[in-house]
Design brief:
The complex is a heterodimer.
Chain A: E1 9-20, E2 28-39, E3 43-48, H1 54-61, E4 69-74, E5 77-78, H2 86-92, E6 93-96, H3 109-119, H4 124-137, H5 154-166, E7 172-176, H6 184-201, E8 204-208, H7 212-218, E9 221-226, E10 229-235, H8 236-241, H9 243-248, H10 255-265, H11 277-296
Parallel strand pairs in A: 3-8, 3-9, 6-7, 7-8
Antiparallel strand pairs in A: 1-2, 1-4, 4-5, 9-10
Chain B: H1 16-19, H2 22-38, H3 42-59, H4 63-70, H5 74-87, E1 93-97, E2 100-103, H6 104-129, H7 134-145, H8 155-185, H9 195-226, H10 245-267
Antiparallel strand pairs in B: 1-2
Classes of the chains: A alpha/beta, B mainly alpha.
Chain lengths: 297, 273
């Protein structure tokens, strides 16, 4: 495998299966024969129901759990080829868990964010640079650096935790429900911060979320999970075009796309590949303008 | 990984043993433990061994799981065996090497003592911990101890504390697992380095764990007060424990079992210890 680094996938799962509690009465199959790839330099969204295997999938990506069968390839190399080097994989694939604010433990925000880089054994000035950069990405004020993370608000704690992983500058940043339980402002800021980080660093980002709206706005590609299997992959347009299939597995399309479908059903001549409000606004304004100029003639 | 540690080792199922009332099982387990200590001769132990094997069969719990339960005791069992083997003086010398002397009585003692420890664990775990959910167990305990309320022993409060503790063990285990994973993702290495390094690696786990345990305790207390919890006074239960014919049958079987062990002790005390 010589041309692996130029492959379009940075992470690739091949026929991966994972079972919890094998050999006990609590056995449950989390993933069954999953083959999927994460494209280099994109924002990939993973959507699916609770229990569809999203979180398991995410933990497989950085080697926190080992699949019972199948392989996980990072840059074309099996991450479990040498189990002793799995720590290196975790530095290359940064994972932010659900409700990451519960993992904070240091005395100050600065030291908590520096924890990951310090574990990587980086020199002190490099750690300093990364921490202040990470704080800027997630929108944390420099003044908070010496505060105790336990004094912060929920949203700020979340940012500290995300900054702690961003500061490791992983090639792939994986976030499991980064915006869960936040108010709309908080969602916007965190997702926006991650997005601008991705664009600036040209890295690869994977986001797990329930919100179709967020997915439509921030993701380039989507992976739809259902019952421990991958049911669809493709660009946002590819996925949301199949509204019927999504509804069938109990998922939704963005509300704005539903509105556009309704308009189409009422005989409005409109392109249905619209899934963000901004785009819908632009298209509808354009239509109105055309209509006005048309009626003037 | 942490999930493999099952609390109280409850193994869900619907065998006759699972269906017994927890109070019956608590009492019968006590009887069983007493019998294991009462038994003196090999025939008595044989009776208990057969009875225990029958209970294991009735519980429908895989032998593998039951044997796994013995694993933590390997050290104690070996220790008991060695102590008894070398330190028992008797009449029939079997073997001598310098100051080490092994008598046939020593071998017998070792075998029976090990058997006693193993039976104690097997019987009580099959009869009680493997087949009774922890919550049912505390319920049963509360009811059995309720006469102590007259002596102003806060039985209900103890039972409630136990129930809550049991209820939160899986939650805390899950939480520990999550926090461990999160810190592993940030490069903590739990499995290498010396003792001091490993102990230090625990700090990033213990602090968040304590913080969240206190937070949960606080939330639970508020939730209970919101539902007007004010102790056991006048509190009724959703699941009232009821004795059924099963409990009667089990008790009768135990009466015969007790009789058999005592008879063996009295009439055929061969190879007694």
């Amino acid at each position: 495998m010589s041309d692996t680094s130029s492959s379009k996938y940075i992470i690739e799962l091949k026929n991966v299966s994972f079972v919890y509690g094998e050999g006990t009465p609590f056995r449950s199959e989390a993933l069954t024969d999953v083959s999927v790839g994460i494209e280099r330099g994109t924002v990939t969204g993973i959507i699916g129901h609770t229990g569809s295997g999203k979180s398991t999938l995410v933990q497989l990506l950085n080697g926190l759990i080992k699949p019972q069968s199948g392989t996980v390839l990072l840059d074309g190399r099996d991450i479990w080829a040498d189990p002793k080097k799995i720590g290196q994989v975790r530095f290359r694939v940064g994972l932010v868990f659900q409700y990451p604010e519960y993992q904070l433990f240091e005395e100050t925000v600065w030291r908590d964010i520096a924890f990951g880089p310090r574990n990587m054994g980086l020199p002190e000035d490099e750690i300093k640079r990364r921490v202040s950069e990470a704080m800027a990405f997630v929108g944390l004020d420099e003044k908070l650096a010496d505060a105790s993370p336990f004094e912060l608000s929920g949203g700020q704690k979340r940012r500290v935790a995300i900054a702690g992983v961003i500061a490791m500058e992983p090639e792939v940043l994986v976030l499991d429900e980064p915006a869960a339980g936040l108010d709309p402002m908080g969602r916007e800021e965190i997702l926006g911060g991650v997005w601008s980080y991705q664009r600036r660093k040209k890295s690869t980002v994977v986001i797990v979320s329930h919100s179709m709206e967020d997915m439509a706005r921030f993701c380039d590609r989507l992976i739809v999970m259902c019952g421990g299997r991958v049911s669809m992959t493709g660009t946002c347009a590819d996925i949301f075009r199949q509204a019927d299939r999504l509804t069938e597995i109990g998922l939704d399309i963005p509300q704005i796309t539903r509105l556009i479908f309704a308009l189409k059903a009422r005989g409005v001549d409109i392109d249905t590949d619209i899934y963000t409000i901004d785009r819908a606004k632009a298209v509808i304004e354009e239509m109105i303008k055309q209509k006005r100029s048309g009626s003037r003639c | 990984m942490l999930k493999d540690i099952t609390l109280g080792q409850f193994f869900p199922g619907d065998s006759p043993l699972h269906k017994l009332d927890p109070r019956t099982k608590l009492i019968l387990t006590t009887v069983y433990i007493i019998l294991v200590f009462v038994a003196r001769g090999a025939p008595g132990f044989a009776v208990i061994l057969l009875f225990t094997l029958a209970m294991i069969a009735a519980s429908k719990i895989p032998a593998k799981i039951i044997l796994r339960g013995l694993r933590p005791l390997v050290f104690i069992i070996t220790f008991t065996a060695i102590i008894n083997l070398f330190w028992t003086k008797g009449e029939n010398l079997l073997f001598r090497l310098g100051f080490i002397e092994i008598y046939s009585e020593g071998v017998l003692y070792a075998v029976l003592m090990v058997l006693r420890v193993v039976l104690l664990l097997l019987g009580s775990s099959v009869l009680l911990t493997y087949t009774t959910s922890p919550i049912a167990l505390t319920d049963g305990l509360e009811q059995l101890l309720s006469p102590l309320k007259k002596l102003r022993v806060p039985v209900h409060e103890f039972a409630m504390m136990m129930t809550i503790a049991l209820r939160f063990i899986p939650t805390l285990i899950e939480e520990t697992d999550k926090i461990m994973n999160a810190q592993k993702a940030r490069g903590v290495d739990f499995s290498s380095g010396g003792i001091i390094r490993r102990a230090k690696a625990l700090i990033p786990i213990l602090i968040p764990l304590f913080v969240s345990a206190f937070r949960r305790a606080d939330e639970l207390a508020i939730a209970m007060e919101c539902r007007c919890y004010r102790g056991g006074e006048g509190r009724t239960r959703m699941k009232v424990l009821k004795l059924s014919y099963r409990d009667l049958v089990a008790s009768v079987i135990f009466v015969f079992f007790t009789a058999a062990v005592i008879a063996a002790n009295v009439f055929i005390p061969w190879l007694s210890v």
